[in-house]
Every structure is written in structure tokens, then in C-alpha cells.
Amino acid sequence: IYLPSSLFVRKVDPRKDAHSHLLTKNEESNLYKIQFHNVKPECLDAYNQLCEETLPSIHNDKYYPCELVGTWNTWYGEQDQAVHMWRYRGGYPALTEVMSKLRQNEEFMKYREERGKMLLSRRNQLLLEFSFWNEPIPRPGPNIYELRSYQLRPGTMIEWGNYWARAIGYRQHNSEAVGGFFSQIGNLYMVHHLWAYKDLEAREATRNAAWQHEGWDEVVYYTVPLIQHMDSRIMIPMKASPLQ
């Protein structure tokens, strides 16, 4: 069986190189937090209003070294769910600083208390971004967003990265690629790909067009066996989301 050679220039020495160092842009890479909030159905409108009143104030305040990347409601997938993504420039020290400062923020603590009354459950993950993906930047709308999440077999993250370093070139033609991330804390060996489309019809056309590029079928053939489980959410941006 022919296997394409690795796209990474450096040879991987598992005794010296952590996978995260090989897959990210550099050792100063941004840290991301993704939050999944399952909201009581009768509280969804009030929850959205609460988020839209509170989250932008943190995003816009330079006192906190963090940025709101995007905030959405799930349209197709898990219902009555909100997804938030934050970026911490400076990695774990920035995250620690933000969490410490927010505990002293009375407005935020009131927000958390009110939010807690509206939730059925919540979970989060800390993520790093793949070096070969775009860094998510604000974009105008209207768009729908697809969050495709892949639970990989342990030990396969480098192989996934090798294939997608080439595959991402097939998926840039309509500026649909927003960001690609892999987990550091939370569910491990988890990959998230975030895409933007004008609508569901544009999503279908864009995904079908990828099969016209020589090499895309090979990427799919070799990456599918690396996956244990996969999930797709179609999401609608909240009014406060920088990604519209």
C-alpha cells in the first residue's frame, strides 16, 4: 500500500517532541476554550439575551487578555444548545489571569449565577490550533457555521495532521475554512474543524466540489480509519458573535 510521505520537515522523535509542539504554529500558540451549554428550552431566549449583554464587555475590555472568537446556537445537531469559543493570547498564563480577574468581576459573577439557573448541563475543552489552518478572524454575515468534531484513535493525531496539512488546500476556494483545533484538556484526541457557508445549499456545493480536486479522495480514504466517532453541528451566530 502506498502511503504519501510526511509533510512535516522535522523528523518526529517521540522521546523529545510533544505532538502539540509539532502541530501548532509555535510554542507561543494561542490557547482556545470551547464551551457547550445545553439550555433549558424555555430559557433559550433569555439565555441568549444574557450572553449578548455580558460577553461583549469582556471581549472589548483590554483588561482581560482574551477574545470572543464566536458564539452560536446549534440549529441542526444537539438542540437548545449554545457554543462559545474564546481565544487566550499568551496561552495558559493568559487563561489563568482571565479566570482570576473574572472572579473579582461582580457583573460576571451575577451573569454566571443567572446563567446557571437556565442550564441543564455544560462542558468545555481547552484547544490548540493546527499550524496549517487559518487563525479565526471576525467576518461579516450572514453565514451559517458547521462545527465538525472528530474523536480520533489514540496515537493518530500526527498522521491526521500530515494529511490535513495537504487537504486544507482543497477547502479554501470559497473562504469556507475558519479554524482547526485539537484538544489539550477535556476529551482527548478530539479535533474540531470550523467552516462557514452562506447557507446549506452552498455547503453542499462546496463539499461536493472538493471531490473534483485530485488527491481529496486519497485524504478521505486514509483519514476515515483514524476516526472513532464524528459529529456535525450546524450553528447560527448570536448577535454578539464576531463571526457572523
Automatic annotation (TrEMBL):
BP GO terms, sorted: mitophagy
Keyword Transferase tagged: no
InterPro entries, A to Z: Dimeric_a/b-barrel, NIPSNAP, NipSnap_domain
Main location: mitochondrion
Domain NIPSNAP: 145-242
GO CC terms of this entry: mitochondrial matrix
Organism domain of life: Eukaryota
Gene3D superfamilies: 3.30.70.100
Subcellular location: Mitochondrion matrix
This protein's UniProt keywords: Autophagy, Mitochondrion, Transit peptide
A Pfam family that the UniProt record links to this protein: NIPSNAP
Function: Protein involved in mitophagy. Accumulates on the mitochondria surface in response to mitochondrial depolarization and acts as a 'eat me' signal by recruiting proteins involved in selective autophagy.
Similarity comment text for this entry: Belongs to the NipSnap family.
Name of this protein: NIPSNAP domain-containing protein
Originating gene: NIPSNAP2
